[in-house]
Specification:
167 residues; mainly beta; Protein of uncharacterized function (DUF2490); Porin; DUF2490
């Protein structure tokens, strides 16, 4: 296993289009993403804005994170900005074309080097499928580029499968 993520969160719906979230995540990162597997605890806050127009849904998510990395005494502060577009397919009402781009920016130096600035980028393109009123999936291609320190940067071409449960 290269990565495992566990999330807990709470959110408040401010308007029909805007919600505020706070959460906690536990992340395990293993090979080949890193030569030395590690665990991370993460506290995060986000604004989620979604607007549905006649033929598409636009989503913007702005997230800040406080990352507590194993074997690192400093807290890492990171900003993430996601932009996503979903377009329903005309003749297949449960399917949609989905594309998104998410940029990660470190706000501080936390590894004793110049780690501030650009961290990574994730670009996704694929299909969304509404399984039932509370369960959706997105399947497609993700290109992930990660800036690393002391080793070459990491570029991955990923078959991405995600499930979204809305209770």
């Amino acid at each position: 296993m290269t990565a495992a993520v566990f999330h807990r969160f709470y959110y408040v719906q401010v308007t029909d289009n805007l919600s505020i979230w706070v959460g906690y995540a536990w992340i395990y990162t293993g090979k080949p993403n890193t030569p030395n597997p590690f665990e991370e605890d993460r506290i995060w806050q986000q604004l989620l804005w979604t607007k549905t127009y006649k033929h598409l849904t636009f989503t913007s998510r702005t997230r800040t994170e406080q990352r507590f990395l194993e074997n690192n005494p400093k807290t890492a502060y990171r900003l993430r900005q996601l932009l996503k577009i979903s377009v329903p397919l005309k003749h297949f009402n449960k399917l949609s074309f989905v594309t998104s781009d998410e940029v990660f920016i470190h706000k501080n130096n936390f590894v004793g080097k110049n780690s501030r600035g650009f961290d990574q980028n994730r670009y996704f393109v694929g299909l969304g499928y509404k399984i039932n009123p509370v369960l959706n999936t997105e399947v497609g291609y993700m290109n992930q580029y990660i800036r690393r320190f002391g080793v070459p940067d990491f570029l991955a071409n990923i078959v991405s499968i995600n499930f979204f449960l809305s209770l």
